[in-house]
Amino acid sequence: MTATPTSTAAPSAPAALPADLEAGLRRLKLAAIRRTAPEVLETARTQRWTPEEVLRTLLEAELAARDASNIAARLKAAAFPVSKTLDGFLVDESSIPQKTFDYLSGLEWVRAKANLALIGPAGTGKSHMLIGLGIAAVHAGHKVRYFTAADLVETLYRGLADNTVGKVIDTLLRADLIIVDEVGFAPLDDTGTQLLFRLVAGAYERRSLAIGSHWPFEQWGRFLPEHTTAVSILDRLLHHATVVVTDGESYRMRPARHERGDRP
Predict the structure, then answer these.
(1) Quick one: pLDDT at residue 236?
(2) pTM score, two decimals?
(3) Residue 87 CA: distances (Å) to CA of 128, 136, 195, 213, 222
(4) 3 phi and psi, to 5 degrees?
């Protein structure tokens, strides 16, 4: 007598929510609970969860989904040009001391509305550090905006052209941290310098500014033509500021040098 093979039935999908519960969750915009509830309720029945366990699991799913959505929205608003994290920053190969890196990574300076200035040659990790700190601040719940200095001044100029520069600056100051990279790559005229001063003055002791520049402060006159305004910018920028001077071989040049066998 030949045995008949037994077929293994596929597990059935969790039962859909009743229409009234589906509609109520949709109306309350509890999308994660609406999506996960059938499976959670099925698990709760088979594992005999308490009502508190069911409620806690559904709330955790909703909160996690909203946190992820908020982070994604803040990252988009920050407008980082690339994604660079602090985990990917090679502290041992940089000129930034570990204690300084740890302090900056803790973001206490952002909560204290203090500033940060990274000064040093190209390729020494300034942009990576600024973007990494900005992304960490976003994940910590802060609003962040990233600009190159040229893009920031262009944004302010557009506001000046249609008489909305005050509103533009007020909008920028809604961010907890404003990052301005590549300061000094291009010289500013008198108007651009005045616009930059308005933003720095508006942020003073109200918001955190983080800037990156390859020019030492005593040489900022090379790209800020009006001496008095340049001094006023630095006065507000450097009060309550952490200044980090980077040096060393450019990260971007290392692969080419090593491929050729050259010494740094």
Answers:
(1) 95
(2) 0.83
(3) 11, 10, 35, 23, 35
(4) -75, 140
